[in-house]
Amino acid sequence: MSSSHPAVVLDLSANGVGIIHALSRKGIDVYAFDTEGPYSKGKSRLALCGICPSPLNQEAELLSFLKGIAMDLDKKPVLYAGADDYVVFISKYRNELSQYYLFLYPDHSLIMDLLDKKKTYELAMKYNIPTAKTFFVENEEQLDEAITQLEFPCILKPVFGHEFRKHVNKKAIHIQDAIQLKKNYPIYREFGDLIIQEIIPGDNQCFYKVAAFFGEDMELLALFTLQKNHQFPSQFGTGAHIVSKRIPDLVDVGVPLLKELTLKGVGMIEYKKDPRDGQYKLIEINPRFWLSHSLTGHSGVDFAHQYYLYLTGQRPSPKLQQISGVHWIYLVRYFLTYLEKRKNGEMSLKDFFYGLKGKKVFALLAFDDPMPFIRSTMSHLRNTWKRKRRSD
Fold this sequence. Notes:
Structural class: alpha/beta
Radius of gyration: 21 Å
Number of helices: 15
CATH topology of the largest domain: D-amino Acid Aminotransferase, Chain A, domain 1
Shape: globular
Helix content: 25-40%
Number of strands: 15
Distance between the termini: 57 Å
Strand content: 15-25%
């Protein structure tokens, strides 16, 4: 198989590093960029890395930057995005960028709907997809009305998560009672629109994902399902310890939805299985590579490489059968989750070490590329120490 086309990756978080590792180890030249900030140090040695303009407030500069990168290369590069901001940018300027890069996205309107929690909820209602009870509040009167119908505790979630996390690094805010809700809602509302949602019961292992890669004509080229074991923060966070697991019921639920939405390219749906009724309830849909996608390559599917082969015209055979039981571990987050759960009596040291057994892939730990792991570990530990000092 040919690897003559280079790849350009926008994102140097663990998501982007996973793409770098998947491609560079197959002999593909990779160029990776991110904005100046937490990822400007500890760059991957498996790619030519650098700083790029921001997709949020330097659109013209980023467009010019990407054109310049592509013009210096012999062949059209495959363009990857590991974060929502870059996805929106690429989609918005797809007509211009497609002259220089190879990529595949669904319609721009669908991307924007999927990044909008309110629109995603409306899609769930349209297609009769079970989801958490949700309230949209725009004023104090609506907030009071929602309180009469809510069961506490509940959660506040940003409508546009990628925008909200620029100000508040949380996926959701846990609300214990009506008093806390009335106090906290106006505080967090300053950073963007919010929804109020019931908490679906169940621990981290009730979270599942189904991911698919559809070609231009919606032919299914890759399929993968997984289950969370742990996330960080443990209550409302992102994956820390994941296991590959074929879940036929989830495939039957998720794949038709992605096809109905015409979500070409890479898409992922997260569900939480409600122990009260056994239903998979929609959490979110992402039109991009997700944090733990590097698990797919070690489970026989390899989304990043399949995407590359398709876009470079190499007609890859569909990869629809995965190896189950492979673990993906974001080591520093797994350790911090252990410390958090140990306090609550939910996890022992024995449990922690047991989770390191068996076939596994680490999110960042790699002997041929040590700096992203060192950077991430130091950053997580430093931020945890700062939070602890503020709370003391």
